[in-house]
Amino acid sequence: MTTIDVAAAKRADEIRFDDLIAPVDREHFFTAYWEREPLLTSGRDPHFFRSLFALRDVDHYIARHRPRAGKGIDLVTSDGFVADNYMHGDGVANLRLVTESYLAGSTIVLSGLEETWEPLVRLSRAIEGELSHPISMTVYATPPRFRGVKPHFDTQENFLLQVEGTKTWRVWKPVQELPPVEGSYVPVTRDRLGEPIFEGVMHPGDSLYIPRGFVHEGVAGDDPSLHVTVDVHVRTWEDFVNDAVAAMAARDPRFRRSLPVGFLNGDPAALESELRDFLASLHQHARVSDAIAKHAEMLIVKKTPPADGHFSSLHAEIGPQTLLIRRGTGATRVFEESGVAGIQFEGNQVIGPAKIASALQHVAEHDSLTPASLPDVLNPNEKLVLARRLVRAGLLMLAERA
Known about the structure:
Largest sheet: 9 strands, mixed
Oligomer: single chain
Strand order of the largest sheet: 1-2-13-9-15-7-6-4-5
Shape: globular
Strand content: 25-35%
């Protein structure tokens, strides 16, 4: 366990990835722990993560967001998932039945909050912008002295943020090294566990990193426990290669041809020869930029834009000194190739001539700006045109309307 001097609580929109691993710095974390070892850090203010989601929010969330079993809510005990007997007739969670099951020992699992609960939406987008990997958010509320989920491993990297109560965690070596990233939960029988490699108690404000594949189990203390899990669904080298191949197939019809009819019983030597030709072509012509572009499309452009009142800026007058701010906390990517430049951001992208590249980079690097502050590679009118376009597209909004 690594302890820091007490770190004061932060607002939800102020928390960033480095807060999850402090006092370990990012370089050391990714060298010594990432995909290798669990890490418990403590010493934060007990209310450090309270602004993200707390016990007081559980009934509000269920009542207002109306989650369905397996689609936003699950109840689970040490014996496994509870049957879907806590639903209304329309399939929506019944708060009274959920509460009864919780009091009888069930852990309430709320998922998909990276899209539905604003503080966690902001945190997930901020971490995605820092790590370049997709993030999901899950909340676990466990009654006093009950186990949560039975021993299991997850197929994503997990950061557990203790919000209220305490929980004792045990972690065992992985039964499968770096399992495929499927976002799934895989139970493991106790006869396969052996001795744990880590055992510790999480208190409010603590954070525990558990690499994917590492088996773990938690037991609540004498008070109700609530923690938020930040799930990192990493993109692997396999994904990256697949994206590069898909981009090649979009350009080269040879990659879209069918395999020979009856190839399962045909001559494997002929297949091997043709496969090597394809691999040689891939080696010669595959472009890193293609794979990055496909990932950026998924991670950035297809995201839902932030709900921040942007509509109030759409018809506003914008002059050279109008103060504009960048919306959202998510990833932003500037690119330039084949005579064009563009910027990708939450929910959209803007593409134009290569001469706007430095202006787009300036926008990406500044939280606030005026059209006049854009690089002088653009004339005053071009600066205004670009700024207004970025407002309409949803990257910028008027500071006074925020």
